[in-house]
């Protein structure tokens, strides 16, 4: 569970970083908005990244 000390705004396209890392992270929903998990296999470490915005495929 994550607890925040007060209200804050995440700009569209922004990123949330959670430290320490969350094991086996999945998408989370905050206020009816889905935050998708960044591909942590390409960016391993002690932090989990969530992106605010839709997934974008680049071919």
Computed over alpha carbons, the radius of gyration is 12 Å
The gross shape turns out to be globular
Broad structural category:
mainly beta
Strand arrangement within the widest β-sheet reads 1-4-3-2
State which percent range the strand residues make up: 25-35%
Spans of at least 5 consecutive residues whose pLDDT stays below 50 are none
**Number of E-state strands:** 4
Q: Helix proportion of residues, in percent?
A: under 10%
Q: Tell me the span between the first and last alpha carbons.
A: 36 Å
The arrangement of helices and strands along the chain is EEEE
Q: What does the largest sheet look like?
A: 4 strands, antiparallel
Query: What number is the mean pLDDT?
Result: 75
Helix count from the secondary structure assignment: 0
Task: Throw out a few tags for this protein.
4 strands, four-stranded antiparallel sheet, mainly beta, 59 residues
Description:
The chain starts with 14 loop residues before the first strand and ends in a 7-residue tail after the last strand. A hairpin with a 2-residue loop joins β2 and β3 (33-37). The radius of gyration is 12 Å and the shape is globular. The chain is built from no helices and four strands. A four-stranded antiparallel beta sheet has the order 1-4-3-2, with no helix packed on it. The mean pLDDT is 75. It has strands spanning 15-18, 28-30, 33-37, 48-52. The chain is mostly beta strands and 59 residues long. Helix content is 0%, strand content 29%.
């Amino acid at each position: 569970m994550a607890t925040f000390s007060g209200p804050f705004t995440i700009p569209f396209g922004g990123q949330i970083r959670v430290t320490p890392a969350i094991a086996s992270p999945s998408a989370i929903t905050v206020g009816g908005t889905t935050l998708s998990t960044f591909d942590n296999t390409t960016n391993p470490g002690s932090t989990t990244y969530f992106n605010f915005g839709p997934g974008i495929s680049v071919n």
